[in-house]
Amino acid sequence: MKTSTKRILSIGFAALCLIAAFIVYGSLIRPELGIVADKRDKNASQENLFENQKAAVASVQQLLTQFKSFPKLQENVSLAMPVGESTTEALNQWQAIVRTSNVGVRSFSLKPLALQPASKNEPLTKRLGILEMNTTVDGSYEGIKSFLRYLETNIRIANTKSISVTPIIGSLGDRYSLALTVEMYYQEP
Amino acid sequence: MPWRLLVFSFVLLAFTTAIYFGLRFGYNSYLDTQTKNIDKQLDDLSHQVKVEDQKSFINFYSQLSNLKRVLDNHKSTLNIFPFLEKNTLSLVYYTEASFLSENGTLVIKGEADSSETLVNQMNVFDRTPELKSVSLDQMNFDPRGGSVNFGATLVFNGEFFAQPQR
Question: Which of A140, A49, A11 is closest to B43 using CA atoms?
Answer without folding.
Answer: A49
